[in-house]
Every structure is written in structure tokens, then in C-alpha cells.
User: Fold this.
Amino acid sequence: MSEIVLTTYDWVPVMPRGFVRDIRIRWALEEAGLPYRVVTTPFDQRDAEHLSHQPFGQVPWLTDSGLSVFESGAMLLHIGEKSELLRSADPKGRGEVKQWLFAALNSVEAATQHWTLLKMMGGNDGGPAWAFIDSFANIRLDRLEAAVAGREWLAGGFSVADVILADVLRMVDRVEGLANRPNCKAYVDRATARPAFQKAHADQMAHFAAADAARA
Ligand SMILES: N[C@@H](CCC(=O)N[C@@H](CS)C(=O)NCC(=O)O)C(=O)O
Assistant:
């Protein structure tokens, strides 16, 4: 019997709570109905054990029956293969799920991650570097706004691609980046209204709240 174990930090500051990427894995596992256990690695240091699972010293990673997987996209594909979040689609549908999963990570998250962080940290100083990052992110989001029009989910039924894209767009939404993008906004609201997301979010918040209590 396989046992899925998800590793996240033992504690993080308040700002990233609710957005630490273990939420993607919790969410998919809840959607899939696969049992799992959450364990921790220290936030304040990266030991050899951590780096042996995640070479960049980041979280999350998961282990499943002796297999260790890092990168949220790879973990989502692993969970998808074990569940209806990918397996149920026909070959064409599976291709579409994978294509959208990579698009969410490589075309949307890559274009918006530093844009959202700079907005949150007040680094949007209006200079040429900011203008470039701002224009790059906005063009990409405008294309996405058109692409998600009329789609309930990205590739047929709800899939691992939706977990990733919705989570990426939550960060964009956090800095009002969806204010004039009603299709993307409705898509995120629809995805995050799912009970599996609500549970994953509540569990992550409770995990870090418990960590505060343990540190006090
Ligand atoms: N591409 C990685 C990114 C992982 C990542 O950015 N993790 C953050 C937490 S959400 C982290 O560990 N940050 C601390 C660091 O980069 O040292 C994935 O999708 O799994």
C-alpha cells in the first residue's frame, strides 16, 4: 500500500501563508481522494536531507512508495496519473492537460511571479526594468484572458492543470492583477470555491498557526 508523504516548511512568515506551494499538492490530493501525511523540514536551514529531495532547497516535495518527486508540476503529474485529475481523459485530453500544466508554469507563472512580488514589495518604481516586466506580464495575462473565455476548465473536466493555473492566478489576484480580467477572475473564483481547495487552504493556515504556537 503506497503512502504519500508531503513535505513543507515547519514555519513561514505570515506573508506567504496560504500561498506556499504545498497548497497545490494538498489541493490535488484532496481532489483525488488520495490519503497523505504532511511532514516538515526546517525553514531556517537547508540540510543535506532537504537538498537530497529538493536540490534548490525549496518546498514542497513528496514521496510515494520510495519515489521522491520535487517541482509542483511534476508532483501534480504524479498525482494526476493516479487519479481522475489526468487519468480519466482520453489521449488527446491528457495531452491538453499536460500542455496547459506547462503553460501555467512556464508561460503564466514565469511571466507573473516577479511582477507580483515587485508589486507586493513596492519595487514597481516606474523605471525601464519595471516597464518591461509590467508590459510582459500584462500582455501574457491579456492573452490568457481571451484563452479562458467560455471554458469552465482548461481541458474538459477539472484537472491538475487547473490546480496549477488557478494557484498561479491567485497570486496575480492578490495584487489586483485580475481586476480588469473578468474571465480569469471568474475562473479563479470557480476553482477556489471547490471544497478540496477550501480544505487545503484551511489545512495550510492551521499548519503554520500551530507552528507559531509551538515557537511561542
Ligand atoms: N518551481 C518550484 C518552486 C518552489 C518554490 O518556489 N517554493 C518556495 C515556497 S512556495 C520556497 O521554498 N521558497 C524558498 C526558497 O526559494 O528558498 C515548484 O513549483 O515546486
User: Anything to note?
Assistant: The first strand starts at residue 4 and ends at 9. Residues 29 and 79 are 7 Å apart (CA to CA). Residues 20-21, 57-59, 71-72 surround glutathione (CB under 6 Å).
